[in-house]
Every structure is written in structure tokens, then in C-alpha cells.
Amino acid sequence: MVGEGVKTVSLTLGEKKLEVVCEMERDPATFVESLKKRGYGVQLVDVQEQEPPFLPRKRVVILSGCPIGREDPVELPSDVRCLRIFECPDIRSLSDMPFFQQTNKLGFCSIHHCRGIESVLDLSSTSQPCNSFQNLELLWLENLDNLHMLVKVAEEASVVSTSSSLPMPGIFSHLESFVIKGCPNMKQLFPCKLAHDLQNLKKLVVCHCVQMEEIISSEEEEESRKGKGINTRTRFSLPKLQELVLAYLPELKSICSSNRAVICDSLWDIEVRECMKLKRMPLYLPQFRDTHQSVPSEDICISPREWWESVEWDYPKAKEVLRPWLYFV
């Protein structure tokens, strides 16, 4: 029996390790015993000041080197608030984990160094909406060698279909911060349909993804527009986006389709480094509305200078307006 408060359940199986941080208001013996039967060594310890400050210290699940998949019967707390996964090579997507289907309070999720993961969510075999991410605020993906899409859906369920036929709408509707680094097989980040859910996104960081070609995929959108005979440019908004980092993306060609512009009324912090194939900036910034307004002391960080001189903005006088905040590294 352990005392009340936040406790860590630390389990080991050879070099494999799993940690669960949660409120232990009742005797956790039943939970611990079920894991002992599967061959884990179990130890209960107090939580120290070991978590990063931006992550909660309650209701945290940490999976490290665990062989968890679709057939794994392990049950974890359904009210998990933070999920951290690293070096779990057998996980193909979060949908592989049975307990993930049961949670709807997840606010923070990070996945690192999982070479087997192919998609964050796999909805290809279900027509039901995904509720596990309905409260997600932070998603951090790093060094996932085989990741090639965020959400996998059935081939016949095209993202230009009606929303009633898709399990995708609303998946990232509460997402505030998204970071993806070192995922060499990602070519398109957000499907167009999914991008419309990013109305609460405040921070977007995309770095060291050597095959990344598009931030918002244009393929399905252009097919839809051709079918409807639409040729005019349309706009959509990321009203809360404050920080945008695009760095070391040698194949990046576009942020969105040539027929779309992105309204970013809160975007003051921009960093673009080594994206030499990016020829167009479709962003409409708050500085463009009123060039005399008082703005935050944020910077626009660019590297190299040659890219800035060659890139074209949709807004005609963008480079002139942005000069006071511009610096080169």
C-alpha cells in the first residue's frame, strides 16, 4: 500500500521499461499484480521534479522500449493526461494500443525514436470518429524514420469526401502546439481537410524532414476544385498562429496550394532556414493590414539572404513592410 499523492509505477522487463504517473488514491496492487504476471518487475516510487516544466506531473504515461501492439492486453488509466513514447519499435500507430482507444482526456503527446511507427493514427479500418485527441493541446514527433502520414484513412475515404463519411474532422481542433523533427519519410504534413481543424494552433515547428514537400497538401484540394470548375484563389485562416518555424527542409516547395492564401492574424514570430525550393509565401500577416500599427518586438529570422531575395510573397509590398523585423543568420 502506498500513500496518497502522485506516484510513479516503474516497470522493467529486461531492457524494456514502462512508467505510469498517476494519482494513487487507492491501493494500486491490482494494477501492479496484473503487470507482474506478464513478467515485469514493478517498483513504486515518488515522483521527483523530473518532468519538463511544460508537461503535467499528474496522469502521465511513459512508454520506453515496450513491445506494445494490437494484441497487447495491458490496461492503463483511461484518464491519461500526458503520453510519452520513445524507443518502442513495434508500435505502428497509437491506434495499435488498446488503452489509447479508451482515453479522451489526453492533452499532451510526444513520440520519439520509434522506427516502426507509420502514422500517428490509423483510422483505415473504422468509420467511427476518433475522440482520443479531442482535447490534445501539444503533439511532438521526433526521429520517426518510417512516419509518412499523420492520419491514415481507408483509400476509398478521400479527404475531399463529405465530412459525414470521414472519421477525421475535429481530430486536432484543440491543438495549440505541433512540433515535428527528423521524420525523413514525411512528404505532406497536413491533408487539406485536416488543416481546417487547426483553428487553435499557436505554434508550428517543422525541422529536418528531408523529404517534406508541402505543409498543407494540395493534391486532394486541386482535384476537388477541378471537379467543381473553381479557379479563383481562396483563403483560409489560422487565426491564433503566433510562431512558425520551417528549418532545414531541402525539398519543401509549398506551404499550401497555388490557389490558396493563409490568413495569420496573430503571427509575429517567423523563422525560415535552408528551404531553398520554397518559392512562394502565401501568408497574410497582421503587419499587412496596418503598416503603422504598434506590434510586438518579434523577429523574422531568415537564412540564407539569397532565399529572401528570391522568394515571392502574395502580398505585393511584403518585403518592404517586414524589413523592420527582418534579420539574417
From TrEMBL:
Signal peptide range: none
Keywords in alphabetical order: Plant defense
UniProt source species: Gossypium aridum
Lineage: Eukaryota, Viridiplantae, Streptophyta, Embryophyta, Tracheophyta
Limits of the Disease resistance protein At4g27190-like leucine-rich repeats domain: 164-281
UniProt-listed InterPro entries: At4g27190-like_LRR (IPR057135), LRR_dom_sf (IPR032675), Plant_NBS-LRR (IPR050905)
Highest rank taxon of the organism: Eukaryota
Name assigned to this protein: Disease resistance protein At4g27190-like leucine-rich repeats domain-containing protein
Pfam family, one: LRR_RPS2
